[in-house]
Amino acid sequence: MTQLSTPADAATLLLDFEDNRLLPLLYGSHDKHLAQIEQRLGVSLTSRGNQIVIAGSAEPAALAQRALERLYGRVKSGLPVDAGEVDAALRMSDKNDSQRDGDEPVIKTRRKRVSPRSPAQARYIEAMRRDELVFGIGPAGTGKTYLAVCYAVEMLLAGQVDRLVLSRPAVEAGERLGFLPGDMRDKVDPYLRPLYDALYDTMPADQVLKKLETGEIEIAPLAFMRGRTLTNAFVILDEAQNTTPVQMKMFLTRIGENSHMAVTGDLSQIDLPGGVKSGLRDAVDTLDEVESVAFIHFTERDVVRHPLVSRIVRAYDARDASGAGQNAARRR
Q1: 149 pairs with which residues across the strands?
Q2: In angstroms, rounded to a whole number, what is the distance separating the alpha carbons of residues 275 and 313?
Q3: d(CA 12, CA 57)
């Protein structure tokens, strides 16, 4: 990379790529990846042979340079680049979000390699590798449950655990299991469908079904955890904001020898009856200083679904903050 000019508030950077055969993959069809970076950062990107000239304000230009280098390394390794990966590169290259050094954690499953798409996701993966109990807390679309399932599958395939246990409380819009038709599995499956979706994204369907039949993968409602001790297992509790403090304590005390737990939830989406404290909130208050327990907090900046999801989360957060301010003013 060469800096061609350095005015106080602007920069023109020249970025060289050694293999121009990879550039169509880097740039995207009709240079759509370059256009995405330009629109996001307000910089100008001009391709010249195996070079890109980056022009704009100094900090966005430097961010664009880091993102392009990251994406080039990806295509050089034979990995695909799409709009989501461009967005991830921009997030991971933003020094305001992260001062990371060294290699980023990568999860390897049968169907794909999963890289973090935000600094919080990278911290989350590292925490799962380091600590026995990890809480992932934040809004929808931040990858909390998906990454936990991917990492659990990686551990299972590597023989580091003998089984996966995936659980959710059966609390959805006031319905209860007894109101649904069919046998117990028919009643439970609608609540646990997101966990199935993540599994099928990391393993071939026939292998998922086989491991479900052998018990290597178990998907069950939270009520089925009572009285058990789970050893040599990776255990995930999803939608944990809908547990009560008693249920949360019951779940957390199921952990046995050589087991790991990931607990995910969104404290802004509590469906419990009014006046009932969330077990997730209670755990945050109670376990914050406990050794080998990590809390990773996600925000709307970490939403990695469709860009509209991030804007929706931001709008709701702004409304809630405004309402809280108005309530405080009325109390005064």
Answers
A1: none
A2: 25
A3: 9
pLDDT tens for each residue of 270-308: 988 888 999 999 999 999 899 999 999 998 888 876 667
Alpha helices of 131-244 — where are they, by DSSP H? 144-157, 184-202, 205-214
Sheet holding 51-56, edge to edge: 2-5, 11-16, 51-56, 44-48
Tokens read off for 158 = 């590597």
Q: What is the dihedral of CA 108, 109, 114, 116, to 10 degrees?
A: -70
At which residue do the structure tokens 């911290």 appear?
123
Query: What sign does the CA torsion over 190, 194, 200, 203 have?
Result: negative
Q: Quick one: CA dihedral 116, 121, 122, 125, positive or negative? A: negative
The contacts of residue 238 (CB under 8 Å, 6+ apart) are 145, 148, 166, 167, 168, 194, 195, 264, 265
Name the token pair of 303: 């939403």
The helix/strand/coil state of 22 is: helix
Sequence-ordered strand ranges (E) for the chain: 2-5, 11-16, 44-48, 51-56, 107-108, 113-114, 133-137, 163-168, 217-221, 233-237, 260-265, 293-297
At residue 312, φ and ψ (nearest 5 deg) are -65, -45
279-287 vs 245-252: helix crossing angle, rounded to 10: 60
Rounded-to-integer distance, Cα 143 and Cα 127, Å: 14
Q: Each residue of 119-149: pLDDT tens digit?
A: 899 999 999 999 999 999 999 889 999 999 9
